[in-house]
Each structure stands twice: as C-alpha cells, then as structure tokens.
C-alpha cells in the first residue's frame, strides 16, 4: 500500500539527510513522487536504495531532479541503474549477426557493439558545434533520445507521437524499470502557449492499426504538447474496476510472441509488486508495437476476441483520471516501473534549428531483480538468456567517483 507522504518524508530525510524533500503524488490517480535534494553521484548506501525501491513500488514513477550535468556523468547514471536491475544494451547500439539488432528479434548471431562515434545519434555532436554535445559515453546500454539531426536545413515538422506501450514487453523477461536523464527539454513556446500545436497530420491513424473504436483512438491521441512523456497509471486503473472484474483479470494469461508465427509464451496480465503488494496491469494492449511486433492473444480466446477485450481495457486505462504528463527539465533523473505504468512519446518537432527546441534525454532500462549493494551478482546463464551479449557494467563505471 502507499504510505502517507509525511511518513515518506521522515524516512527520506533519515537516509538522505535533512536537505532532502518530497512532493507527491504527482498525478490525480496517485502515481508519481518527486524527491529533491538527492545527489546521485556518490555510491548509494543500502538503506538509501531500499528507500528508493519502496518509493517506486508505491508510486510507479519517481523523479529526482537537480543532478548537476557538469559533474553527473552517464557512468554515475549507469551505476545507479545497476541497483534496479541488470542494464540492458539497446539494440540501436549493436549489430547482431552483421545486421542492425533492431531488425530481427530472434537472431542468435554474434554481437558487435557500435562505438559512439559510429552511432547515428552521434550527429547530435555536429548539429550545434560548441553549444551542445552529448554527455560522453560508449556504453551500449545508453539510448540517446533526441530530435537533433546533423542537417538542420530542412523544414521543421511535428510527428504523431508514438503508440502506448511498456518497454520490451515482448520478451520473456520484460523490462522492469526504465529511466531518463534529461539533458535538454524544449523551452520554445508558440502562440498557443505550447511547444507544438499538435501533430502535422492529426487525422492519420498512424502509428496504430485500423479497426479500433473512435473513443479509444481519441484517448490514444490526446498527447501532451510540451515534449512531456505521457504516462498512464495501470495500478489505479485496475483498482478502479469492480472487484469481480479485477479477480477475472487476475486469471488472464497473454500469449506474447517475438515474431509472427512463433509459438510464444504465456505471461500474466496482472502483476503484484513484491515490495508494495500493489497490483497493476502489465501492457494491457493488443498491438503495442504496430507493424513491428505481432499483436498478442489471450489464452482461450481468438485473435478477434483478444482485440475486443484488450481494446476495451486500453480505453479504460487511457481515461484522463489515470493519465499523467511528465514535464522534463535538465538534470532530472526520472524512472518508471513498466509493470505499473504505460507510457508514450509526445508529438515532437524534427529538423530543429534552434537549441530552444532541443529535446535530449538518455535512457537506461533494467531487467531482473533490484539489489541494494553493488556489484550485481547475476549468473552467467541468466545474463546469456536475458541480456544481449551477456553485458554487465564494467568496473570502471561502477567505481566512478
Ligand atoms: Fe518506451
């Protein structure tokens, strides 16, 4: 259960000192907590990690603003991530069997890490010379999320936003925690008071598949306009349903597949957080990766029945009362539990030619069990089964001062 905010403040100040503070919940649904005065550069004490794990288990989203980007490095960030799970290399950062790793999920080909200079995102460092450069890193676990391209001469366009999803829900062991470190968030505002007015093509169905009801499409497409990450609280959405329906959902198993035609495996729709005991819906979406991964099937239902069932549930979860748009600011570390939330990327300007439009974030994602002390002791077999290339964070990152 969620503790009272005064009790949380007491516990926070006991482990992080009297200079720490908290605000929450951040959303009307009860999700989200902001912890201030917490410096993530020093190695964390086990009791500090336990406090943070508890906070995430109760609120689903934790934001820790105010990291000093002059001294807080991506090594500090990756060490911090190790407490939440084993950091997962992002497929944009390696080749598998000589092909981009994103292009097929099932290949067992040899892994080749791509150095930062050869990654597409390295163009960030050439777009605004002398004014903006990515924080230095070579780690394959860091995903650079940016709207900055080397060539800034094209017309500025505004995308549709993404599809609602959780991270890597399509693998047998899904991502548990994902986190952003924010370097730049857009500060430009137009005549409507927002960064963008909306997508350039608001009537397109993209990126969704045809066939959903209008109300669901409307809820999916209602996205924030200042570059915020959009969240939906799947714990509050589950708790709002009648108890009999919650019990019924607790028995639902979803067949997930990496690729079309695979046999796949069964995964529970409802998860119970082991620390807080809060139940939530994990990825209650029929096709969360349209045209990239196959839609899911509920055990004992046809594909059409599965779609009707999950579209109805997605529509419920995306109601305004379960939504929270998280505004980013430089120096924020924001993490979320992928079992307790859905998220989506907003409409974003591309081909920008002003730093006021720049959106630059670094994402890390973690699998497996959290640990209070480092280094992690994941077994080699487990790493080989669930973490690309069996990656583990090297000592020079864990020992960063
Ligand atoms: Fe995501």
Supply Rg: 21 Å
> What's the level 1 CATH class?
Alpha Beta
Task: Determine the structural class based on helices, strands and strand pairing.
Answer: alpha+beta
Strand content: 15-25%
Amino- and carboxy-terminal Cα gap = 36 Å
Question: Number of helical runs?
Answer: 10
- Net shape: globular
Main beta sheet: strand number and arrangement? Answer: 8 strands, mixed
Task: Please give a structural write-up.
The chain contains ten helices and 21 strands. It has 401 residues and is α+β, with helices and mostly antiparallel strands. The protein has a single domain, classed as 4-Layer Sandwich (Double-stranded beta-helix), CATH 3.60.130. The strands form six sheets. Strands 1, 2, 3, 4, 8, 10, 18 and 21 form an eight-stranded mixed sheet that branches. The chain has a three-stranded antiparallel sheet with strand order 6-5-7, with no helix packed on it. The longest helix is centred in the last third of the chain and has 15 residues.
Key phrases:
single chain, 401 residues, alpha+beta, Double-stranded beta-helix, three-stranded antiparallel sheet, 21 strands, binds fe (ii) ion
């Amino acid at each position: 259960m969620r503790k009272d905010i005064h009790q949380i403040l007491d516990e926070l100040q006991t482990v992080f000192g009297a200079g720490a503070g908290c605000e929450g919940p951040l959303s009307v649904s009860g999700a989200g907590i902001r912890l201030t005065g917490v410096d993530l550069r020093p190695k964390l004490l086990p009791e500090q990690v336990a406090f943070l794990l508890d906070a995430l288990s109760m609120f689903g989203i934790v934001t820790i603003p105010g990291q000093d980007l002059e001294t807080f490095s991506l090594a500090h960030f990756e060490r911090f991530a190790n407490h939440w799970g084993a950091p997962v290399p992002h497929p944009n950062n390696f080749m598998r069997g000589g092909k981009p790793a994103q292009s097929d999920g099932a290949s067992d080909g040899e892994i080749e890490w791509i150095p930062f200079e050869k990654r597409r995102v390295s163009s960030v460092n050439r777009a605004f010379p002398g004014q903006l450069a990515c924080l230095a890193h070579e780690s394959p676990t860091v995903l650079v999320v940016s709207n900055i391209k080397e060539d800034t001469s094209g017309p500025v366009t505004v995308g549709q936003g993404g599809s609602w999803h959780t991270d890597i829900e399509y693998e047998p062991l899904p991502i548990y925690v994902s986190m952003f470190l924010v370097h730049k968030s857009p500060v430009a505002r137009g005549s409507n008071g927002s960064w963008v007015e909306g997508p350039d093509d608001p009537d397109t169905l993209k990126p969704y598949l045809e066939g959903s009801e209008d109300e669901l499409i409307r809820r999916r497409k209602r996205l924030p306009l200042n570059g915020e990450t959009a969240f939906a609280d799947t714990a509050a959405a589950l708790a709002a349903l009648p108890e009999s329906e919650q019990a019924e959902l607790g028995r639902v198993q979803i067949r997930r597949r990496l690729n079309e035609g695979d046999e796949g495996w069964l995964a529970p729709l409802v998860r119970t957080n082991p620390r807080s005991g809060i139940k939530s819906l994990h990825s209650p979406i029929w096709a969360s990766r349209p045209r990239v991964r196959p839609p899911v099937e509920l055990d004992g239902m046809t594909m059409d029945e599965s779609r009707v069932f999950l579209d109805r549930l997605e529509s419920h979860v995306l109601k305004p009362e379960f939504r929270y748009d998280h505004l980013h600011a430089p120096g924020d570390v924001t993490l979320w539990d992928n079992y307790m939330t859905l998220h989506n990327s907003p409409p974003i300007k591309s081909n920008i030619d002003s730093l006021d439009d720049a959106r630059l974030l670094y994402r890390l994602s973690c699998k497996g069990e959290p640990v209070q002390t480092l280094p992690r002791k994941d077994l080699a077999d487990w790493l080989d089964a669930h973490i690309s290339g069996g990656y583990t964070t090297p000592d020079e990152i864990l020992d960063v001062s």
